[in-house]
Amino acid sequence: MDSVSISQLKARPSKAISQSLDYPVAVEKRRKVQAYLVGKDLYEKILSYIEDYIDKKAVEDTDFKKGKDFRAVAEELGI
Fold first, then answer.
1. What is the separation of C-alpha 36 from the centre of its chain, rounded to a whole number of angstroms?
2. What are the residue ranges in the chain where pLDDT is below 50?
3. Predicted local confidence at residue 49, as pLDDT
4. How many C-beta neighbours within 10 Å does residue 12 have?
5. Phi, psi of 12, rounded to the nearest 5 degrees
6. What distance lies between CA 19 and its chain's CA centroid?
7. pLDDT of residue 42
8. CA 20 to 30 Å from 34, out of 45, 68, 70, 75?
9. Residue 25 CB neighbours (<10 A)
10. Are 21 and 39 in contact (CB under 8 A)?
């Protein structure tokens, strides 16, 4: 994993951003990682993965036996 110091990030932010497009870049302060810089596409992929995981977990945890019949709900809603 690439890393940049905060000083390098301040001096050349566009270089750090371009480095982060494919893989996260660690931002260090006094040789300790303080943050990660993540490119837009990778960030969106991570969010999509998390949302899919949450949705999958919700479906797995749902007891569909407690639900109502679709036709009965449709009739109640008038559709």
1. 13
2. none
3. 97
4. 13
5. -140, 70
6. 19
7. 92
8. 45
9. 23
10. yes
